[in-house]
Amino acid sequence: MRRRGTRETPEGEGIPIDPRVPPATRWPYQGVVGQIGRGPHRGEWVYADPTRNPDDATGRILGYILELPHRQLFTLDGTYLMDDGAYDDIRPPDKGGFIDLITTALDIEWSTDEAVVQRAVSERRHREVALTDPAQESLSAEGWREGDVDEIDDAEFSLESAQLTAGRFVIHRRLDWRQSLALMDPDVPHGWRWTREVRHRYRGQIRDVRTPVCLTIDGATEFGVDDEAGTGVLILESIERRPEGITIVGVIPCQIHIRAPAPRLRILIGAPHLPADDE
Fold first, then answer.
1. Is the pTM of this model over 0.70?
2. Helices H, strands E: what count in the chain?
3. Spacing of C-alpha 279 from chain mean position
4. Boundaries of every domain in the chain
């Protein structure tokens, strides 16, 4: 399966391998990021977000989504390359893919350094949130429901947003469009139904869907952050409960320790924000 965007990939087009693309076996869990070296988007970042086989304990990568700095990428002479969100399967070692195509066309240098990847991804996520919801604290309390950590697997939280006020530890964010759509799957317990009518109505605006998440721990007395990579974000992996408190564990080396005798953990998931008809 290959999707380059709104324009079709020419039939029989062979994409040469670019040696600057790191093999998928070397990709960190979150994927790889690359900086564009030439063209109208020079200096901006591209993110290859991997999709993995959930039935494979090794987390083998099946394909990837290219998250681009703009809705469409062009070369210096104005030639169209592809749309943001293009998906491609992982190619055999002797065949190039979309990632090779844009690497060659835009002189992209890729990084497999986890800290570099986390910083670039965090900046992109924060920019997306700022564009879609500049005042997170103004979100309506209507439509919230209790969830659990499994529903928001891999959710990324800004450590700067973590606060302890009046005995309540709070950290929140908005889930990106992929996880939002997963929560709207009718097979997800208590999920919002992503009906055919809704899908048709917002066709072409799917990437604008966001879902607010608020994680709170009542009875907290203090908290501390271990952020070994210095990324300023936590990619949620699990939550460990102990008699003296709770530890929120990240995928990368990052943890938040919350002291709270008899803590009460609540994960609230809001109703997905759908773009207005005039957006």
1. no
2. 4, 18
3. 22
4. 2-112, 135-269
Q: Which of 3-12, 83-92, 184-193, 249-258 has the lowest mean pLDDT?
A: 3-12
- CA torsion through residues 230, 251, 53, 92, sign: positive
Which tokens in the block code for residue 159?
Answer: 């450590």
Side by side, the strands of the sheet bearing 264-269 are 145-147, 264-269, 211-218, 168-175, 163-165
Kindly report, residue by residue over 35-81, the tens digit of the pLDDT. 999 888 888 889 998 887 766 667 788 888 888 887 778 887 778 88
Match 């990837």 to its residue by tokens: 64
Q: Which burial class, exposed, middle or buried, applies to 185 when counting CB atoms under 10 A from its CB (0-12, 13-18, 19+)?
A: exposed
What pLDDT, in 10s, does the model give residues 1-28?
Answer: 344 443 334 333 578 999 999 998 899 8
* CA atoms 121, 52, 5, 77: torsion sign: positive
Close Cβ partners of 277 (under 8 Å, ≥ 6 residues apart):
none
Identity of residue 143: G
- Alpha-carbon distance of 255 to 95, in angstroms, equals 40
